[in-house]
Amino acid sequence: MKQYIVTGASRGIGRDTALALAAHPSHWVLALSRDLAGLERLEQAAREAGAEQRLHCLPFDIAQPHMPQLMEVLGQWGKLDGIVHNAGLLINKPFEELDEADWQRMFQVNFFSPMALTRSLLPLLEAARGAHVLHIGSMGGFQGSSKFNGLSAYSASKAALANLTETLAEELKSRHISVNCLSLGAVQTEMLAQAFPGYQAPLSSAEMGGFVAWFAEQGHRFFNGKILPVSVSTP
Predict the structure, then answer these.
(1) What is the pTM of this model?
(2) pLDDT in tens, 91-117
(3) Is 158 a catalytic site residue?
(4) Of 45, 50, 58, 109, which has the fewest Cβ atoms less than 10 A away?
């Protein structure tokens, strides 16, 4: 049995990644989100797909985590085969209108929280002897990509996450833990609508969620410490 965590699992790519992982009969998925209503909808979708026994939803705010609650659930596992750091925050404002609180909120959710969660879960990841830490980045944080007005703080936080991918992969390889980052392009989600109102993305959330789920399970067989652009359009 392979066991995974997906953060930001109540909607969009996180939701569809959790469902795709839970569809596999040998997987067990812990879906984390602070959105209670979204988690209830996820549980209903899992029931409809016949995967309710393989998906457990836990209300959890990664920006203000209550680790004992999480560790109580994970303590029954003994190992963790992978974590998909999907939770993210986007504030679309011109640079001069972004205040310090905006920067702190985005870096907390997009960078500091994934880092802290991985650090807390290292013993379980190491116990799997082949775990995969997968960061969900953005083309906005990919070096040399097109950049867009209003997204400076978001892009900077995702760039920091990408750099963390490279450094963690080096530090953790002796512990049999792989770390990769998928820098996603446009996918039809609520977050995309915040960044580019009215834009129609070439990929659906379900399509990308299926790919992310596959990569979470198989990608570290081919890559480690890599920042991989996953984009067919600009934006």
Answers:
(1) 0.96
(2) 999 999 999 999 999 999 999 999 999
(3) yes
(4) 50
